[in-house]
Design brief:
Strand order of the largest sheet: 1-2
Number of helices: 4
Structural class: mainly alpha
Helix content: 40-55%
Radius of gyration: 27 Å
Length: 127
Amino acid sequence: MTIKKNQLDRNKLDQIVTDARRDQKLREQSYRGQALKLYPWVCGRCAREFDHKNLAELTVHHKNHNHDDNPSDGSNWELLCIYCHDNEHSRYEETRFDGSATTEKSTAPASTHNPFADLKSLLNSKK
């Protein structure tokens, strides 16, 4: 009974190793795999360094925001940590959607409420 079980376990392990090697080759062919080979594992904004343990936190950012533009020389890519990458995309979205609203000059004050307007009289009344 143990011989058959060991043989099944061995076949299962061989299949896992084979799948892992196949997946690694596919990853290396992707633009992320290419970028990780081209560039040092350092965030392009905050200069945080990465190793194999935290490499999942390093992302490939498309400089022109076109995810279909993947030249093999990597000229449209930069490696960013997940935090800098999120920041970059949020800044891009702000300029993309709020750009028309910020170009108009407004004559209205930014805020009409003054929380300290009556502070002096409130402090004097407690005496």
